[in-house]
Design a protein that fits this description.
Blueprint lengths: L3 E12 L7 H16 L8 E4 L7 H9 L5 E3 L7 H14 L5 E8 L1 H4 L1 H4 L17 H15 L3 H18 L11 H6 L2 E3 L2 E2 L8 E10 H4 L7 E10 L15 H12 L8 E4 L5 H9 L8 H5 L11 E2 L4 H4 L7 H13 L5 E8 L4 E8 L1 H4 L3 H8 L5 H10 L9
Parallel strand pairs: 2-3, 2-4, 9-10, 9-11
Antiparallel strand pairs: 1-7, 1-8, 4-7, 5-6, 8-12, 11-12
Helix pairs in contact: 1-2
């Protein structure tokens, strides 16, 4: 056990922010809401972690807006993986005595101001002559390569979008897209960058989110049921897609392995997974790279509603970036949803995974309930587990309709 817990979690202005609000306003609103959720105030905070495309000095801006002078700040910027990395860094800072109560926050008004104004693209000089439409062109490369290498189909990609929509419909407001969505709708949507169409791409919304993190001991006496950090891992392979070693293998292989090793868990123990879904290909890649299925089996794993409500694995239960909301960097909303899965849905082990850049940076965290994180976690995990290989075998059979699919 890492010794820290999430004591508060909240979102703010998801969808379309009120007129006149800035990204800093949205971030501060989310931070104050998370503090209220924990039963704390800004005066209790002595550690601030924040990053954003619109806020180069994000952590310093947040401290000013909260009216505090913390002992420790961190503005590590690795895109959508930043909040998971911040959670990892916050536990290190708390363990080292550098702070006691940390706020991790993010805010964006990209829909209000326009994506071009909210996110500056760094174009690699080797890629610039081709004028790539980033980031979608990079993810389209990964999708096309996966389809070529492993036979992944357009239907399987579409199932990621359809499953996300079904979760969003179940969630209701403030999910941005709640209309019915079919495979045919996904295929009929205008193409953006082959093989990806409009419905294969994440939403463009405003929004903010925040967590309050403190020691496990302190979290237990605060207002809300704590959610414990069981393990975390970070990894990266490249900055620009032209330097990516393998278009179908991400650094999630390493970040996930580190998180699972620290927690003493395996993918079969996970009851809910919140996976960065900027495009329909990304959950497929991450399910493979995090070990939920073998490389090349991600397409069958997500098909036919197997990650939708009632499926084999709960994935992106808010609707994710494809249907719930995607405020530029979607890591913190995924973490807030992971907290909700533990608190409100009674899940004991939940994974949240963030992705930054063009499959460049990856960060994985495992969150758990008091029962799993307590003094006798092995007994709970033993009860969760079936005989060796049974859970993974069941999921693999479910993901392939009972067919035997070998690793490639």
């Amino acid at each position: 056990m890492t010794g820290i817990a999430i004591a508060g979690a909240a979102e703010a202005q998801m969808g379309l922010a009120l007129p006149g609000l800035t990204a800093a306003d949205v971030m501060a609103e989310a931070a104050l809401a998370a503090l209220a959720d924990a039963g704390l105030t800004a005066e209790d905070v002595d550690g601030v972690f924040a990053a954003g495309t619109q806020l180069p000095w994000a952590s310093v801006t947040l401290t000013e807006d909260l009216g505090i002078q913390p002992r420790y700040t961190d503005s590590t910027m690795i895109g959508g993986a930043s909040p998971m990395a911040h959670l990892n860094h916050a536990r290190a800072a708390i363990a080292a005595g550098l702070c006691e109560v940390a706020v991790i926050a993010y805010g964006s008004t990209q829909r209000s101001v326009g994506r071009a104004s909210a996110s500056v693209q760094e174009i690699d000089p080797w890629e610039a002559p081709y004028r790539p439409m980033l980031p979608v062109a990079a993810y389209a490369l990964a999708a096309a390569r996966h389809m070529h290498e492993y036979g992944t189909t357009a239907d399987q990609l579409a199932w990621v979008a359809v499953s996300a929509r079904q979760w969003a419909q179940r969630r209701g407001d403030p999910a941005w897209s709640q209309d019915d969505l079919t495979l045919e709708d996904v295929h009929a949507a205008p193409r953006v960058c082959d093989p990806l169409g409009v419905r294969d791409c994440c939403l463009v919304t405003d929004g903010g989110a925040a967590l309050v993190v403190t020691s496990a001991a302190r979290a237990r006496v605060l207002r809300r049921k704590p959610v414990f950090l069981l393990g975390a891992g970070e990894a990266q392979t490249h900055r620009h897609v032209s330097s990516m070693p393998d278009l179908t293998r991400t650094a999630a292989v390493d970040s996930g392995a580190r998180a699972f090793a620290e927690a003493g868990l395996r993918p079969a123990d996970v009851e809910s997974a919140q996976l960065y879904d900027a495009f329909t290909i990304t959950p497929i890649l991450f399910l493979e790279d995090l070990g939920f299925c073998a490389k090349g089996e991600g397409g069958p794993f997500v098909a036919d509603g197997r990650i939708a409500p009632g499926g084999a694995l709960r994935v992106n239960t808010s609707g994710g970036g494809l249907s719930y909301g995607h405020p530029g960097m979607n890591g913190l909303p995924l973490l807030v949803e992971a907290v909700r899965e533990v608190r409100d849905e009674g899940k004991d082990i939940v994974l949240a995974h963030g992705n930054g850049g063009v499959l460049s940076t990856q960060a994985t965290v495992l969150l758990g309930s008091e029962e799993v994180a307590g003094e006798r976690p092995r007994s709970k995990i033993a009860r969760l587990r079936e005989p060796a290989g049974a859970v993974m075998g069941r999921r693999r059979r479910a993901a392939t309709g009972g067919r035997k699919v070998g690793a490639r």
